[in-house]
Structures are given as structure tokens and as C-alpha cells.
């Protein structure tokens, strides 16, 4: 269910966040479904429990999950438009900073555009 790429340049915590978000958005994890405890998931993935706790905190902040003391962590009922709009704004700002940084590194607008196109094709999002 959860997969990590230990050779990736992406941190383990970010991989956990991305993995859980993908499972939720794909419908693999349903609303109100209980997630593994921090301890269970850290054992399964053989990572530090603090890493899983950090990922769960981030997912909770983004509105994908919620925690009930003594009961566990659950998928939110609605990964609603409000959450999506806020997150789109955050990601757009990150993208804006990244594009600006690529410009500082000397890439032209055309080179940046081709890079973005290549990244989209990698994901299969561009048809």
C-alpha cells in the first residue's frame, strides 16, 4: 500500500505525505477510513515514528486527515474544494518561486517551458 524510494531526493516524510494523498484522491483510502497508527506505519516502512508523525501533521494541516485522541487517525470526510483551493494557491506559489529560481540560474522562458512540459509528460498528465 505505501511505497518509499530510499534513493529519491525527496525526503521520506514528503514521500509519505504524497503517497497518502494519492491514495485518498484515487479513492483507495475512503472517507472515515482509519489509517495505521504512527507506530504501525513506522514499523511497516522501517522509518522513525517522528517521520510518520510529521507526515500526519502535514496531512492534517492540509485537511486530508484528522485525529481523534484515543481512537486514531482517519481520512477526512471531505477533501473539499476549500482544501483544494488553499492547496492550489500554496503549490502555485511554490511553482512561481521555482520558475523564478530557474530564471536566476540562466534558463530562458522557452527552456523553462520545455522543462515543465517534460515533467508533465513524465507524469502522463499531458496528452
Describe this structure in words.
With 127 residues, this protein is mostly helical. The chain has 2 domains: 64 residues, Arc Repressor Mutant, subunit A (Orthogonal Bundle), CATH 1.10.10; 43 residues. It contains 5 helices and 2 strands. Helix 1 packs across helix 3. The model has no long low-confidence stretch (mean pLDDT 88).
How would a crystallographer describe the biggest sheet? 2 strands, antiparallel
Compute the separation of the termini in Å: 28 Å
Number of structural domains:
2
List the secondary-structure elements in sequence, H or E.
HHHEEHH
Going by CATH, the homologous superfamily of the largest domain would be Winged helix-like DNA-binding domain superfamily/Winged helix DNA-binding domain
Shape: elongated
Assembly annotation:
single chain
Mean pLDDT: 88
